[in-house]
Each structure stands twice: as structure tokens, then as C-alpha cells.
Design brief:
alpha/beta; globular; two-stranded parallel sheet
Length: 165
């Protein structure tokens, strides 16, 4: 979850300059260590609050935020837990909720199911469909795009899947 922060220095690139604070939660200690290492030289992120722990427990005590990002989490939990977590994340969102999942048919299916649930809870959707209606795609079609990114040595290491959050 990202709380209002003042920006992000990644080399010379600045993004989200209106944000004031960042709060991040991850159950994976290695990813937390990597993120803290990547942000260590940033003057804008020196006050980063990065909690290592289970998302639902951390979010229960978290303040609401203007921007909440749930990245690669909904594919790692059960359908029942996904619904509970989605409701909790939505209650912690004052303005924008961004959910990121792998660009796969399974990831698309999770996004569409969560999209329907959030619309029923009062959310308005900007993507993947820029409307609140039913997705017009029919299986086996699925909405996706490709964006190639350079991968660090840490990204290329085999990943151990978490069994619970």
C-alpha cells in the first residue's frame, strides 16, 4: 500500500511529485531488503515506511491513502481471502486504487473478478476497461499489453512463492 508521498528519485527520474509519504508492506523479507537498498540513495524516500509482514494485519492499522497500490498480491491468496483483502484495501483508499497483476490469462481473470467486486462496492474503473460496464471480451480473448523492462540480477533469481500472506 502506498500512502501519500512526495515523489520518487530513481536516478534522475522523478515520478508522482505530489505524493508526500510512502508506506509499503511485503511479507517477503528479501524483497523488502532489495527495495530499501534501491531507495537508500534517494533524498525523497529517506522517510519511507516499509513494513515486513502480512498485508491484512498491516492494513488493519494503516491510515487511508490517496493512492493505494496492490502489486502481485491477489494471485497469491485464495478467492475468499482475495475478497476480504479487496474490501480492506478499498476502505483504505481515499482516491485511487491501482491493482497490478501479471499479464497472463489467469492474472486477467483475477483482475476482472476483482473489478466486478470493486464496482459493486462503489468504485469507478479507469483500466483495463475505461468504463464501469461488463468487460466486452469473451474467452479465450483477454485484455493485456506487453511492456519489456530491464531486469536486475535480483529479478532473475528464482523466486520462492509465498504460501500465505
Amino acid at each position: 500500500m502506498s500512502a501519500p508521498a512526495r515523489g520518487r528519485d530513481m536516478g534522475r527520474c522523478r515520478a508522482f511529485s505530489s505524493l508526500r509519504r510512502f508506506t509499503l508492506v511485503d511479507a517477503n523479507g528479501a524483497l523488502r531488503a532489495l527495495a530499501l537498498d534501491l531507495t537508500s540513495g534517494s533524498t525523497r524516500l529517506r522517510e519511507i515506511n516499509y513494513q515486513c509482514g502480512e498485508a491484512r494485519a498491516a492494513l488493519a492499522d494503516a491510515e487511508a491513502a490517496d493512492l493505494v497500490v496492490a502489486s502481485y498480491i491477489i494471485g497469491e491468496i485464495s478467492d475468499a481471502e482475495r475478497r476480504i483483502l479487496a474490501e480492506l484495501i478499498w476502505t483504505k483508499t481515499r482516491d485511487t486504487l491501482l491493482i497490478v497483476e501479471p499479464g497472463t490469462p489467469a492474472g486477467y481473470g483475477r483482475i476482472i473478478a476483482l473489478r466486478q467486486h470493486l464496482i459493486a462496492s462503489g468504485a469507478h474503473v479507469a483500466a483495463p476497461c475505461p468504463h464501469d460496464g461488463k468487460c466486452p471480451l469473451m474467452a479465450p480473448d483477454w485484455c493485456h499489453f506487453t511492456q519489456r523492462l530491464p531486469r536486475s540480477r535480483a529479478h532473475k533469481r528464482p523466486q520462492i512463492r509465498r504460501t500465505s500472506l
